[in-house]
Amino acid sequence: MNAREEVLARLRSARDAGAPRSPVVVSREYTTSGRLVPGAEETVARLDETLTDYKATVTRVATADEVPGAVAAFLSGARTVVVPPGLPDAWLGAFAGAVRADDPALSVAELDATDAVVTGAAVAIADTGTFVLAVAAPDQGRRAITLVPDHHVCVIHADAVVSSVPEAIARLDPSSPLTFVSGPSATSDIELDRVEGVHGPRRLDVVLVGP
Predict the structure, then answer these.
(1) Burial environment of residue 125 by CB neighbours within 10 A (0 to 12, 13 to 18, 19 or more)
(2) Which residues pair with 118 in a beta bridge?
(3) How confident is the model over 46-60, as pLDDT tens digits?
(4) From which residue to which does the signal peptide run (predicted)?
(5) Would you tell me which CATH number, out of the four given (3.90.1640.10, 3.30.1360.120, 3.40.50.10420, 3.40.50.1820), belongs to the domain 37-209?
(6) Which of 82, 85, 157, 162 has its CB 3.0 to 4.6 Å from that of 103, i.e. a possible disulfide?
(7) Where are the domains of the chain?
(8) Peptide bond into 104 cis (omega under 30)
């Protein structure tokens, strides 16, 4: 009996074995809480550090009143910006260019001609330098608007910052499409040459608000 015949014989044997085996019980004893307190200064500082490691540019502001100025500074030089339909108007209050809401949905060509996108975030993970966008959230919008423009500005409030991945997952709705962002889009070819902007924005700026 050659190897192929042996494999097929085992498959037939398993098929003819009768009732399926009892499901395997998987132990889930991993830690579900991080070492840092969600929303605390130490946690937000850790997120700042990990985002910077991923080559994102981070600005910290103390209050929501400072968000428009920080966003406008990041958008310096941009002529057009796309935003989700539910983005707070105040965030773009200091921006001098044209703002286009994604309602009705813009085409890929229209998004490609747009300089930047501004969104909020559902949750951010300090340990991994990741923030999560939820399609169902009014200040985050469709996935396309955050993948096609070359520049993404994200505003993250301290109360959305947790320490670990399990903590973030517990806050998310699994029925909603989610996008996990860890730094600007980048990849490397076989020669290890870094190429940015292949499958998303090549520039990522983050405004951290509070605590």
Answers:
(1) buried
(2) 153
(3) 999 999 999 999 999
(4) none
(5) 3.40.50.10420
(6) 85
(7) 37-209
(8) yes
